[in-house]
Amino acid sequence: MVPRKQKTIIQDSAKHIIAGTNPPLAYSSKANNNSFKTKKKESTHVSGNDYVEKIDNKQEILSLLTDKESQNTGMTMALFDLQRNLTSIETKYSLLQNELNVIKMTIAKHDQEISSHDAIHRIKQVDSKVKNLNSQFDGIMAALEKEVKSKEKFNALQTDAYNKLQEHVTKQLNTEKNNLNNSFYEIQKENKALKKQMLQLESNIKASVATINKSMKDIENNMKLSEKDRKQLTSFNNEEVKLIKKELTTTNNTIQNNLNNRLEKLSNDMIMNEKNSRILIEEKNNLLKEKYDNDFIILNRSIGEIKDELNNSNIEKSEALKMTDEKVSKLEKNLQKIEKNVGKVFKESQQVTSTTKRHEEGIMRKLDTLENQLNVYIDDMNKKIAESNRPKTNDSINNSNSSTGRSINNSKTPEKIKQELLMIMNDKEKMSYQGMLAAEEKILNLQKQMESFKGDFEMKTKELPDSKLTGELQKQMLTFETMMNQVQETQSSLNKKIDQDIPANMEEFSMKTKNLIQALDNKFLHEINLLQKGMKQSNKANKSLIKDVDEKDKKRAKHEEMILTKLLKLEDDVKRYIDTKNREMDEDDNDRRSINNDDSNIDIEKIRTELSLIVNERSKLTYQTSLIMEEKVINMQENLNNFRKELDHKCHLKGLDDPRIIEMQKQLASVNMMMNDMENVQKDIKEKLDEEIPSNIEEMSIKMKNALNLIGKKINQEEEERYLSIKELQEVYAGLAIKYKTMAKQINSKSNENEEIKKMKLELDKCKDAVKKLAESLTTMKSNIESQVIDKKK
């Protein structure tokens, strides 16, 4: 991957993708050695990836509740308030996270400024102060996390209680609906039995009327036959005929009265049954309304309590935020003080380094002048020895007198060198390590020159004759030997300082570097472990989601099959009903009609109840099944319209007094009722298809697109982050390797450092392999999610 020069990089990992928390920022600044140094803000992870998932689950639960209870406006308003409160809490929490991340970034800046400082003992004090501040900050974060966990538990309990209450209410409603349906079915059965009894009575009445008509015809025939005899016996038979007529009239009247009484009783029983059924239905409806009202009042109370609790939690959170703001202000003040102290220390260290450099330059100049003076002194001594070996003349005597004057001046040079060496010995504590090494080299050169001159002087003085000049030379040589001893003492004291002080500092430096490397390794291993755990959890969550989706799809498919079978059955019932009624209208014979009456007596109320049940269960259907359902209902509606038109036409053709037309009008009224139900069903289905389903599809597609875009961005950011971290590790490794090499040259301990460097290389290779594996797992996860989304869309 090609490196990118960026000033601000959003730093993220798999745990932030899973948890849904805000990604931390990393600022990259290019140093003098062309190496990028990243400053990271650690994201505050709340309660182990659970807070944002629980809030999302609550929002899904609330959306389901709003879909179930869309008819109740009060509930929708309360749930909308709950959603708004949850979103406000999320925004406040994200703002808190951003502020805490800014504080962490400032602390990281101060840590890097302090780590680059040279004064070690003062830096330790600053490190202790920063550790105290970090411990205070960690305490604040732990308290905040505890508060968030407690609030999450409380919210989970509230949602569980709300769900249980809703389940209880739905169960009660279902039981009461079932009871109402059973009572309604029983009343319908009683009405059917009464109708059958009425039909039997009508048939009996018709049979009795037919027998009476036959008897009357027989009587008329007998009367016609006996007209001749009657003329003869008019006087005798008139009385008998009157008596027979009276008897016939009384019998007819009694039969008619009995039939009328029975019909009145049956009609009164029908009316009483209808009244009782209406009273029972009204009582049950009132009871249901009261229960609904009580449940709604309880729900409103629970929602009000939840609102009060949320308001109290918001107040507590605001107080906690105020406390955190106060603590943050205190931390900022302490950080400002630390910055001032660090600035002072940095200025003092700069002044100290400038003074040490000047001091070292002065000492090096003194040593150079000492070398020059020694060279001049040795040259003069060599000239004196050469002159003492020559034969004496007048010129040589004059030269000897002049040389004695010079020797007096040269005898003062060893004392000057001694004084300057003593000054260097006293000022060696103010020198740095490199300055001491350079001074040691200069003193070693002086020591070598003096030893070589001493050997030459001893060889030459043995060859010289005894004279005053040789005595003076020997005296000067004694002072020269004392100067040599002084040089040796200075050289030994410098060696002791280099052997005692400097190796301890080097060991401290090496220990610090080792500790830094171990801290980096532990940090990266911890992050890798967290990412692996996050990947395992995400895989488990994906498996559970897939199982839940499959189970829901199976249940939905079964439910759709049941509803489609019900619709097909309803279609068959309606067709059968229409066919039987058409047959009845075409038939003219009463006997045939009475025979086929049982087949034509199909329950329309049952069809209406089944339609209402299907409409109530339409929210669980998919888009395709709802379309099929709409087609079925439209076909049924068309068939019923045609049947209604035929009935109207035939009723107009026939007379209104015909009992069959009265029955047809009753059936037409029931058909009209069913038609109205069909129209309501069609309207509901159209509303579902036109309003609810397309909006849900668009929302789901938008959400899935946003989720895919976010996952892609986070994966790219994760790749960039891992690339930058690997590059940073490589730069740290290169710098540490250079430092270890220089330390090995100075202390002559190459073997141990090479082993440590090999260990570091192995650990870095492991880190690279782990990062590669993580990148591969993230890409596979992205491809799996995209494939699942595509399958769901299909």
TrEMBL record:
Residues 394-403 have a biased composition (Low complexity). It comes from the Eukaryota. The keyword tRNA processing does not apply. Residues 177-211, 743-777 form a coiled coil. The keyword Mitochondrion does not apply. Keywords: Coiled coil. Residues 386-413 are annotated as: Disordered. PANTHER family: COILED-COIL DOMAIN-CONTAINING PROTEIN 154. This is RING-type domain-containing protein. It comes from Parastrongyloides trichosuri. The lineage of its organism: Eukaryota, Metazoa, Ecdysozoa, Nematoda, Chromadorea.
